Amino acid sequence: MAGNDVVTTGTQTLAWDSAANHNKAVVWIRSGAYSRTFTVKVRLQSGQLITASYTTPSSSFQGTLNTSDILASDPEYTKKVNDRVNAYNSAVTAWIGSSSAAVQPSAIAASLGPLLITAFAGIGIISTPLNVVGSTICFTPNGNVRSVEVDDGGDGSLIRGVADEIESVEKVSVIHYPGKVVKVRSRNAAEAYYLKAIAKDKSALPGLAQEVTWIEGAGVENTITGGLIYGTPGGSNFYIASSASLLNAIIPGDHPTFEISTAGDNDSAPRPFFIGRKITYIGTFQSRLLLGSGGVLCVSRSDDYLNFFRTTVLTAPADDAFEMLAQGSEDDVLRYGTMYDQNLVIFGTKRQYIIDGRSPLTPTSANMPVMSNYEDVSDAPPVGAGGYIMYAKANESATGIHQIQPGQTQNSPESYAASSQLSTYIQGSMVEALSSTGSPSHLIVRTDASRNAVYL
What is the pLDDT of residues 152-211, one digit of tens each? Predict the structure, then answer.
């Protein structure tokens, strides 16, 4: 249920643009190469820039074999030349081994790590600012790092910096901090999206850099904190509360609650329109919960009535949540709904709108055109009766009953007065109606003029 005077509330949490998230940064050396300069630039929250560079050794031995100083007349000439050649060959062999080891990703990371620590110490940060895990440099989440830039002296394929933004989903790292959120901003994409790191080993200690997998996440986490009244039967009683948690305190059970947003931000996946406003319409249609506020209809996910957030901003799944605007009636207020010839008709204070029920309701087929223009007929819920819709229209002293029925043109219904001979007989304004399609068909109406009378 939705309270007439209840303003829906919600909260926002910055999952991406926060100091706690930005300073979870890593640099991953993916591969090594000879004679390449690897550079890491760290931008701190204070704006200071720290730079460290390390150049890998050459693949070829830089020494030369020179025996010109050995005289040919020396009785040990041959021995000395052989010793010189053997020493040179030994140096070449040693160089090959050491240089090969020095271009391994873990060795490059191990060399860059102390250089970065020295650079941190140079600006007064003496606590351990980073740890080296294999081939990954993991900056300690201490509130200092804001962003990271990396360069491998080539095309950038040998090193990756994962801090605040990356250009594509392929540029994430294997090791990171669980819970880290990174923005993916492609140069050609109109909107950015976000990835969240999830620990592979669920038993690993939290807060430590470890192997992770990346899933689409939310840059801004929106939560709906209040707006509906929850109710459930229990024994011979019916319990109501203003939240699922309060209801659970009264009568424990699996009470549903609003889901939190899991993708996008305020631009790509804004919070539902009804947050901060009153819910003026509530209904269900095609296994979805519909919440109307003003002229906007918010549609939940299929079979997930309290999930009003998109699951992804990259595609538009058929079962995802979305919103619809009453066409040409931004200032209307949606009030009630009823079924009409397989379709859902929603009554606003100014017009009536139709949602096609012959095809699935999906984000890509969202459409709520005007069906009819009958103003001030939403004082009470309309009633669907067979192929007709019965509604009330009040004047200064009485209420008239009208019916909407199919017209001569498809999707163009017509409205007739069903109580024209009783134009002043039904006193007051209708507050409730009940239809019966028995023989004969009839409509029972209750008004606010009398608690003890009904009209048939």
Answer: 999 999 999 999 999 989 999 999 999 999 999 876 666 789 999 999 988 888 788 999
Give the whole-angstrom CA distance, residue 55 versus residue 196. 33
What is the rounded CA–CA span in Å between residue 19 and residue 103?
Answer: 34
Q: Any idea of the CA torsion for 345, 346, 347, 353, to the nearest 10 degrees?
A: -70
The pair phi, psi for residue 147, each rounded to 5°, is -155, 165
In one letter, which amino acid is 83?
D
Residue 373 three-state SS: coil
Residues in the chain: 456
pLDDT above 80: residue 396: no
Q: Retrieve residue 354's tokens.
A: 């139709």
* DSSP per-residue string spanning 287-317: TEEEEEETTEEEE-BTTBTT--S-S-SSS--
Spatial separation of the C-alpha atoms in residues 127 and 346, rounded to whole Å = 63
Using alpha carbons only, give the angle 84, 86, 88 rounded to the nearest 5 degrees.
Answer: 70
* Bond preceding residue 406 cis, omega within 30 of 0: no
